[in-house]
Amino acid sequence: MSEKFFHSKTAIITLSAACFVVLISLGVRQVFGLFFIDFNESLKISNTAFGFAIGIQMLMWGLTGPIFGALADRYGGHVAIISAFIFYTLGVYYLYSGPNTGIFFQIHMGLLIGIGLGGTAISIPMSVVGKHFPLSTRTIAMSIVTAIGSFGYFLSPIFTNYSLKVYGWNYTLFIFSLFLLTGLVAAYFVRSPSKNESVEQISDQSFKEALTEAFKTKSYILLVSGFFVCGFHITLVGTHVPKYVIDRGLEDWTAAAILSLIGLFNIFGSLLSGYLSAKMSKKIILSGIYFLRGISIIFFIFTPASNISAFLFGASFGFLWLSTVPATSGIVAHLFGTKYLGMLYGIVFLSHQIGSFFGAYLGGLFHDLYGSYDYAWYLAIALSVFAAIIHLPIKEEPVLRLKIE
Protein backbone atom coordinates (compact mmCIF):
# COMPACT_ATOMS: atom_id res chain seq x y z
CA MET A 1 0.00 0.00 0.00
CA SER A 2 1.41 3.41 -0.98
CA GLU A 3 2.29 5.89 1.73
CA LYS A 4 -0.10 8.79 2.33
CA PHE A 5 1.18 12.10 0.96
CA PHE A 6 -0.49 14.20 3.67
CA HIS A 7 -0.07 12.95 7.25
CA SER A 8 -2.26 15.59 8.90
CA LYS A 9 -4.79 18.32 8.18
CA THR A 10 -2.20 20.87 9.30
CA ALA A 11 0.12 19.67 6.52
CA ILE A 12 -2.55 20.39 3.88
CA ILE A 13 -3.28 23.87 5.24
CA THR A 14 0.40 24.69 5.69
CA LEU A 15 1.34 23.63 2.16
CA SER A 16 -1.51 25.67 0.65
CA ALA A 17 -0.75 28.78 2.72
CA ALA A 18 2.99 28.52 2.07
CA CYS A 19 2.36 28.40 -1.69
CA PHE A 20 0.33 31.61 -1.51
CA VAL A 21 2.91 33.34 0.70
CA VAL A 22 5.73 32.55 -1.72
CA LEU A 23 3.58 33.52 -4.73
CA ILE A 24 3.02 36.98 -3.27
CA SER A 25 6.55 37.47 -1.95
CA LEU A 26 8.41 36.34 -5.07
CA GLY A 27 5.89 37.92 -7.42
CA VAL A 28 6.56 41.37 -5.98
CA ARG A 29 10.30 40.79 -5.72
CA GLN A 30 10.65 39.59 -9.33
CA VAL A 31 9.69 42.84 -11.06
CA PHE A 32 11.79 45.56 -9.41
CA GLY A 33 13.98 45.61 -12.54
CA LEU A 34 10.95 46.82 -14.55
CA PHE A 35 10.81 49.93 -12.33
CA PHE A 36 14.39 51.02 -13.07
CA ILE A 37 13.67 53.42 -15.94
CA ASP A 38 10.96 55.14 -13.85
CA PHE A 39 13.23 55.29 -10.81
CA ASN A 40 16.00 56.70 -13.01
CA GLU A 41 13.78 59.41 -14.50
CA SER A 42 11.71 60.32 -11.42
CA LEU A 43 14.13 59.68 -8.55
CA LYS A 44 17.47 60.08 -10.41
CA ILE A 45 18.62 56.58 -9.40
CA SER A 46 21.71 55.48 -11.38
CA ASN A 47 22.51 51.95 -12.57
CA THR A 48 25.10 51.60 -9.84
CA ALA A 49 22.81 52.98 -7.10
CA PHE A 50 19.98 50.69 -8.20
CA GLY A 51 22.28 47.67 -8.37
CA PHE A 52 23.67 48.54 -4.93
CA ALA A 53 20.16 48.78 -3.45
CA ILE A 54 19.24 45.39 -4.89
CA GLY A 55 22.57 44.07 -3.61
CA ILE A 56 21.77 45.29 -0.08
CA GLN A 57 18.33 43.73 -0.44
CA MET A 58 19.88 40.39 -1.34
CA LEU A 59 22.37 40.57 1.54
CA MET A 60 19.68 41.44 4.08
CA TRP A 61 17.50 38.66 2.67
CA GLY A 62 20.36 36.25 3.26
CA LEU A 63 21.55 37.61 6.62
CA THR A 64 18.08 37.55 8.15
CA GLY A 65 17.18 34.14 6.67
CA PRO A 66 18.96 32.13 9.40
CA ILE A 67 17.46 34.45 12.04
CA PHE A 68 13.92 33.94 10.76
CA GLY A 69 14.74 30.24 10.33
CA ALA A 70 15.78 29.95 13.99
CA LEU A 71 12.65 31.89 14.95
CA ALA A 72 10.50 29.49 12.92
CA ASP A 73 12.26 26.45 14.41
CA ARG A 74 11.69 27.79 17.94
CA TYR A 75 8.30 29.54 17.86
CA GLY A 76 6.60 28.33 14.68
CA GLY A 77 6.67 29.31 11.01
CA HIS A 78 3.72 31.70 11.23
CA VAL A 79 5.49 33.91 13.80
CA ALA A 80 8.58 34.28 11.62
CA ILE A 81 6.71 34.90 8.36
CA ILE A 82 4.23 37.44 9.79
CA SER A 83 7.12 39.38 11.34
CA ALA A 84 8.93 39.46 8.01
CA PHE A 85 5.85 40.58 6.05
CA ILE A 86 5.62 43.67 8.26
CA PHE A 87 9.10 44.79 7.14
CA TYR A 88 8.36 43.92 3.49
CA THR A 89 5.10 45.88 3.43
CA LEU A 90 6.66 48.93 5.06
CA GLY A 91 9.53 48.93 2.55
CA VAL A 92 7.22 48.89 -0.48
CA TYR A 93 4.82 51.42 1.07
CA TYR A 94 7.60 53.90 1.84
CA LEU A 95 8.96 53.54 -1.71
CA TYR A 96 5.48 54.60 -2.82
CA SER A 97 4.83 57.38 -0.30
CA GLY A 98 8.34 58.73 0.27
CA PRO A 99 10.82 59.93 1.18
CA ASN A 100 12.33 57.66 -1.47
CA THR A 101 15.50 59.25 -2.85
CA GLY A 102 19.17 58.95 -1.89
CA ILE A 103 19.75 57.05 1.34
CA PHE A 104 16.00 56.52 1.79
CA PHE A 105 15.87 54.56 -1.48
CA GLN A 106 18.63 52.29 -0.16
CA ILE A 107 16.85 51.86 3.19
CA HIS A 108 13.45 51.05 1.71
CA MET A 109 14.44 49.06 -1.38
CA GLY A 110 17.51 47.50 0.22
CA LEU A 111 17.14 47.20 3.98
CA LEU A 112 13.40 46.86 4.71
CA ILE A 113 12.41 44.80 1.67
CA GLY A 114 15.52 42.65 2.14
CA ILE A 115 14.58 41.86 5.74
CA GLY A 116 11.03 41.08 4.60
CA LEU A 117 12.26 38.65 1.96
CA GLY A 118 14.39 36.89 4.59
CA GLY A 119 11.26 35.44 6.20
CA THR A 120 8.69 35.32 3.39
CA ALA A 121 10.46 34.11 0.25
CA ILE A 122 11.15 30.43 -0.38
CA SER A 123 13.45 29.32 2.45
CA ILE A 124 11.29 29.75 5.57
CA PRO A 125 7.88 28.73 4.14
CA MET A 126 9.50 25.77 2.40
CA SER A 127 11.43 24.62 5.47
CA VAL A 128 8.21 24.69 7.52
CA VAL A 129 6.46 22.62 4.85
CA GLY A 130 9.39 20.19 4.80
CA LYS A 131 8.83 19.36 8.47
CA HIS A 132 5.38 17.98 7.63
CA PHE A 133 6.67 15.39 5.13
CA PRO A 134 8.95 12.33 5.37
CA LEU A 135 12.12 11.89 3.32
CA SER A 136 10.31 9.94 0.59
CA THR A 137 7.99 12.85 -0.34
CA ARG A 138 9.73 15.89 1.16
CA THR A 139 11.39 17.18 -2.03
CA ILE A 140 8.10 16.79 -3.91
CA ALA A 141 6.25 18.90 -1.32
CA MET A 142 9.02 21.50 -1.39
CA SER A 143 8.94 21.63 -5.18
CA ILE A 144 5.18 22.29 -5.06
CA VAL A 145 5.83 25.37 -2.91
CA THR A 146 8.52 26.51 -5.32
CA ALA A 147 6.43 25.82 -8.43
CA ILE A 148 3.12 27.32 -7.34
CA GLY A 149 4.89 30.21 -5.65
CA SER A 150 6.70 30.75 -8.93
CA PHE A 151 3.39 31.38 -10.65
CA GLY A 152 3.82 34.83 -9.14
CA TYR A 153 6.91 35.15 -11.33
CA PHE A 154 4.69 34.56 -14.35
CA LEU A 155 1.78 36.82 -13.40
CA SER A 156 3.64 39.72 -11.84
CA PRO A 157 5.61 40.97 -14.90
CA ILE A 158 2.43 40.94 -17.01
CA PHE A 159 0.50 42.91 -14.38
CA THR A 160 3.41 45.24 -13.63
CA ASN A 161 4.09 46.10 -17.28
CA TYR A 162 0.39 46.97 -17.71
CA SER A 163 0.12 48.87 -14.43
CA LEU A 164 3.26 50.94 -15.05
CA LYS A 165 1.87 52.14 -18.38
CA VAL A 166 -1.67 52.80 -17.15
CA TYR A 167 -1.25 53.91 -13.52
CA GLY A 168 2.43 54.80 -13.15
CA TRP A 169 5.06 53.46 -10.78
CA ASN A 170 3.69 55.12 -7.62
CA TYR A 171 0.25 53.57 -7.73
CA THR A 172 1.70 50.22 -8.82
CA LEU A 173 3.78 50.13 -5.63
CA PHE A 174 0.69 50.98 -3.59
CA ILE A 175 -1.11 48.00 -5.13
CA PHE A 176 1.90 45.85 -4.25
CA SER A 177 1.63 46.90 -0.61
CA LEU A 178 -1.99 45.66 -0.61
CA PHE A 179 -0.88 42.34 -2.12
CA LEU A 180 1.66 41.97 0.67
CA LEU A 181 -1.03 42.49 3.31
CA THR A 182 -2.93 39.49 1.89
CA GLY A 183 0.29 37.48 2.18
CA LEU A 184 0.58 38.52 5.82
CA VAL A 185 -2.89 37.09 6.50
CA ALA A 186 -2.03 33.81 4.74
CA ALA A 187 1.19 33.56 6.80
CA TYR A 188 -0.91 32.90 9.92
CA PHE A 189 -1.71 29.44 8.53
CA VAL A 190 1.90 28.39 7.80
CA ARG A 191 2.17 26.32 10.98
CA SER A 192 5.01 24.10 12.12
CA PRO A 193 3.93 20.55 13.08
CA SER A 194 3.20 19.73 16.70
CA LYS A 195 5.00 16.84 18.39
CA ASN A 196 2.06 14.58 17.57
CA GLU A 197 2.12 15.65 13.90
CA SER A 198 5.88 15.34 13.40
CA VAL A 199 6.88 12.79 10.74
CA GLU A 200 10.29 12.01 12.25
CA GLN A 201 11.77 11.54 15.68
CA ILE A 202 12.84 14.87 17.18
CA SER A 203 16.38 14.74 18.54
CA ASP A 204 17.56 16.53 21.68
CA GLN A 205 20.39 18.20 19.77
CA SER A 206 20.99 21.82 20.76
CA PHE A 207 21.14 24.85 18.47
CA LYS A 208 24.93 25.17 19.00
CA GLU A 209 25.52 21.47 18.41
CA ALA A 210 23.59 21.63 15.14
CA LEU A 211 25.76 24.51 13.90
CA THR A 212 28.99 22.79 14.92
CA GLU A 213 27.95 19.56 13.25
CA ALA A 214 26.98 21.32 10.01
CA PHE A 215 30.23 23.24 9.63
CA LYS A 216 32.27 20.09 10.28
CA THR A 217 30.48 18.36 7.41
CA LYS A 218 32.35 18.76 4.11
CA SER A 219 29.27 18.13 1.99
CA TYR A 220 27.44 20.99 3.71
CA ILE A 221 30.35 23.36 3.02
CA LEU A 222 30.35 22.37 -0.66
CA LEU A 223 26.58 22.93 -0.83
CA VAL A 224 26.96 26.37 0.77
CA SER A 225 29.70 27.27 -1.73
CA GLY A 226 27.72 26.09 -4.75
CA PHE A 227 24.54 27.96 -3.85
CA PHE A 228 26.50 31.23 -4.09
CA VAL A 229 26.41 30.74 -7.86
CA CYS A 230 22.64 30.28 -7.94
CA GLY A 231 22.19 33.66 -6.27
CA PHE A 232 24.61 35.39 -8.63
CA HIS A 233 22.81 34.00 -11.68
CA ILE A 234 19.20 34.73 -10.84
CA THR A 235 19.81 38.22 -9.45
CA LEU A 236 21.97 39.26 -12.39
CA VAL A 237 19.21 38.10 -14.73
CA GLY A 238 16.23 39.38 -12.72
CA THR A 239 17.78 42.80 -12.06
CA HIS A 240 19.64 43.62 -15.27
CA VAL A 241 18.07 41.69 -18.15
CA PRO A 242 15.33 44.36 -18.63
CA LYS A 243 18.02 47.00 -19.26
CA TYR A 244 20.20 44.56 -21.22
CA VAL A 245 17.57 43.72 -23.84
CA ILE A 246 16.68 47.40 -24.27
CA ASP A 247 20.40 48.19 -24.74
CA ARG A 248 20.41 45.60 -27.53
CA GLY A 249 17.54 47.38 -29.31
CA LEU A 250 14.57 45.31 -28.16
CA GLU A 251 11.32 46.70 -26.72
CA ASP A 252 10.51 47.03 -23.02
CA TRP A 253 7.66 44.52 -23.41
CA THR A 254 10.29 41.95 -24.41
CA ALA A 255 11.93 42.39 -21.01
CA ALA A 256 8.60 41.79 -19.28
CA ALA A 257 7.99 38.75 -21.49
CA ILE A 258 11.37 37.25 -20.51
CA LEU A 259 10.53 37.60 -16.82
CA SER A 260 7.08 36.07 -17.37
CA LEU A 261 8.53 33.15 -19.31
CA ILE A 262 11.04 32.60 -16.50
CA GLY A 263 8.12 32.34 -14.07
CA LEU A 264 6.08 30.07 -16.32
CA PHE A 265 8.84 27.58 -17.13
CA ASN A 266 10.15 27.69 -13.58
CA ILE A 267 6.92 25.97 -12.53
CA PHE A 268 7.74 22.95 -14.70
CA GLY A 269 11.43 22.97 -13.82
CA SER A 270 10.77 23.08 -10.09
CA LEU A 271 8.22 20.25 -10.19
CA LEU A 272 10.51 18.08 -12.30
CA SER A 273 13.45 18.78 -10.01
CA GLY A 274 11.40 17.85 -6.95
CA TYR A 275 10.21 14.63 -8.58
CA LEU A 276 13.66 13.61 -9.80
CA SER A 277 15.23 14.50 -6.43
CA ALA A 278 13.06 11.84 -4.83
CA LYS A 279 14.21 9.26 -7.42
CA MET A 280 17.90 9.94 -8.11
CA SER A 281 21.05 11.69 -6.89
CA LYS A 282 20.34 15.29 -5.95
CA LYS A 283 23.95 16.38 -6.46
CA ILE A 284 23.90 15.14 -10.08
CA ILE A 285 20.70 17.10 -10.66
CA LEU A 286 22.33 20.25 -9.26
CA SER A 287 25.50 19.80 -11.28
CA GLY A 288 23.45 19.41 -14.45
CA ILE A 289 21.33 22.48 -13.72
CA TYR A 290 24.34 24.76 -13.26
CA PHE A 291 26.03 23.46 -16.41
CA LEU A 292 22.88 24.02 -18.49
CA ARG A 293 22.54 27.55 -17.10
CA GLY A 294 25.93 28.36 -18.60
CA ILE A 295 24.81 26.99 -21.98
CA SER A 296 21.62 29.09 -21.81
CA ILE A 297 23.58 32.29 -21.09
CA ILE A 298 26.09 31.58 -23.90
CA PHE A 299 23.23 31.17 -26.39
CA PHE A 300 21.55 34.36 -25.18
CA ILE A 301 24.54 36.72 -25.36
CA PHE A 302 26.30 35.36 -28.45
CA THR A 303 23.32 35.08 -30.81
CA PRO A 304 21.91 38.15 -32.61
CA ALA A 305 19.41 40.12 -30.56
CA SER A 306 15.84 39.12 -31.39
CA ASN A 307 12.58 38.40 -29.65
CA ILE A 308 12.97 34.72 -30.51
CA SER A 309 16.38 34.40 -28.82
CA ALA A 310 15.09 36.43 -25.86
CA PHE A 311 12.06 34.18 -25.44
CA LEU A 312 14.18 31.03 -25.75
CA PHE A 313 16.44 32.38 -23.01
CA GLY A 314 13.47 33.18 -20.77
CA ALA A 315 12.06 29.67 -21.25
CA SER A 316 15.35 27.79 -20.83
CA PHE A 317 16.70 29.83 -17.92
CA GLY A 318 13.27 29.80 -16.31
CA PHE A 319 13.21 25.98 -16.43
CA LEU A 320 16.49 26.09 -14.47
CA TRP A 321 15.58 29.10 -12.29
CA LEU A 322 14.56 27.69 -8.89
CA SER A 323 14.92 24.04 -9.79
CA THR A 324 18.03 24.13 -7.59
CA VAL A 325 15.96 24.76 -4.47
CA PRO A 326 14.18 21.39 -3.88
CA ALA A 327 17.42 19.45 -4.45
CA THR A 328 19.51 21.79 -2.28
CA SER A 329 17.08 21.88 0.62
CA GLY A 330 16.51 18.15 0.23
CA ILE A 331 20.22 17.47 0.72
CA VAL A 332 20.28 19.63 3.89
CA ALA A 333 17.30 17.75 5.34
CA HIS A 334 18.80 14.40 4.34
CA LEU A 335 22.14 15.22 5.97
CA PHE A 336 20.88 16.63 9.27
CA GLY A 337 17.15 15.91 9.70
CA THR A 338 14.43 18.57 9.97
CA LYS A 339 14.67 19.88 13.55
CA TYR A 340 16.92 22.80 12.54
CA LEU A 341 16.10 22.77 8.84
CA GLY A 342 14.98 26.41 8.87
CA MET A 343 18.26 27.61 10.35
CA LEU A 344 20.61 25.30 8.39
CA TYR A 345 18.95 25.96 5.05
CA GLY A 346 18.92 29.65 5.99
CA ILE A 347 22.72 29.55 6.22
CA VAL A 348 22.95 27.88 2.80
CA PHE A 349 20.63 30.58 1.50
CA LEU A 350 22.85 33.28 3.02
CA SER A 351 25.57 32.13 0.62
CA HIS A 352 23.00 32.36 -2.17
CA GLN A 353 22.27 35.95 -1.22
CA ILE A 354 25.93 36.94 -1.02
CA GLY A 355 26.11 35.72 -4.61
CA SER A 356 22.96 37.75 -5.31
CA PHE A 357 24.63 40.89 -3.97
CA PHE A 358 27.51 40.48 -6.40
CA GLY A 359 25.14 39.65 -9.27
CA ALA A 360 23.12 42.82 -8.68
CA TYR A 361 25.99 45.17 -7.84
CA LEU A 362 28.61 44.00 -10.35
CA GLY A 363 26.05 43.98 -13.15
CA GLY A 364 25.31 47.67 -12.58
CA LEU A 365 28.95 48.55 -11.90
CA PHE A 366 30.28 46.85 -15.04
CA HIS A 367 27.62 48.57 -17.12
CA ASP A 368 28.51 52.00 -15.78
CA LEU A 369 32.28 51.37 -16.14
CA TYR A 370 32.35 49.68 -19.55
CA GLY A 371 29.00 50.57 -21.13
CA SER A 372 27.79 46.97 -21.31
CA TYR A 373 26.99 43.89 -19.23
CA ASP A 374 29.46 41.67 -21.11
CA TYR A 375 31.90 41.10 -18.25
CA ALA A 376 29.05 40.23 -15.87
CA TRP A 377 27.85 37.57 -18.33
CA TYR A 378 31.35 36.15 -18.75
CA LEU A 379 31.67 35.84 -14.99
CA ALA A 380 28.25 34.13 -14.81
CA ILE A 381 29.38 31.53 -17.37
CA ALA A 382 32.61 30.82 -15.46
CA LEU A 383 30.63 30.38 -12.24
CA SER A 384 28.36 27.86 -13.99
CA VAL A 385 31.36 25.64 -14.63
CA PHE A 386 32.57 26.08 -11.04
CA ALA A 387 29.16 25.10 -9.58
CA ALA A 388 28.77 22.13 -11.91
CA ILE A 389 32.07 20.74 -10.61
CA ILE A 390 31.85 21.58 -6.90
CA HIS A 391 28.62 19.63 -6.28
CA LEU A 392 30.04 16.32 -7.49
CA PRO A 393 32.05 15.43 -4.30
CA ILE A 394 28.98 15.86 -2.03
CA LYS A 395 28.06 12.70 -0.09
CA GLU A 396 24.30 12.27 0.09
CA GLU A 397 24.00 10.34 3.34
CA PRO A 398 22.89 11.25 6.88
CA VAL A 399 25.51 12.39 9.36
CA LEU A 400 26.83 9.82 11.84
CA ARG A 401 24.48 11.06 14.60
CA LEU A 402 21.38 10.15 12.57
CA LYS A 403 22.83 6.77 11.56
CA ILE A 404 23.37 5.92 15.23
CA GLU A 405 19.91 7.10 16.24
Layout of secondary structure:
Layout: H1 9-30, H2 36-43, H3 47-75, H4 77-97, H5 103-120, H6 123-130, H7 135-166, H8 169-187, H9 207-215, H10 218-247, H11 252-277, H12 282-302, H13 307-319, H14 324-336, H15 341-370, H16 374-390, H17 400-404
Helix pairs in contact: 1-6, 1-7, 1-8, 3-4, 3-5, 3-6, 3-15, 4-5, 4-8, 6-7, 6-15, 7-11, 7-14, 10-11, 10-14, 10-15, 10-16, 11-13, 11-14, 12-13, 12-14, 12-16, 15-16
- Give the tally of structural domains: 1
Briefly note the structural class of the backbone. Answer: mainly alpha
Mean pLDDT: 88
What radius of gyration results from the CA coordinates?
20 Å
How much of the sequence is in beta strands? under 5%
Portion of residues in helices?
over 70%
Determine the number of helices (DSSP H or I, runs of at least 4 residues): 17
Q: What is the total tally of β strands?
A: 0
Distance between the termini: 27 Å
The dominant shape is globular
Low-confidence stretches: none
Q: What is the H/E string?
A: HHHHHHHHHHHHHHHHH
CATH H-level name... which superfamily?
Answer: MFS general substrate transporter like domains
Q: Mind describing the biggest β-sheet? A: none
Oligomer: single chain
CATH class: Mainly Alpha
> What's the CATH topology label?
Growth Hormone, Chain: A
- CATH structural architecture: Up-down Bundle
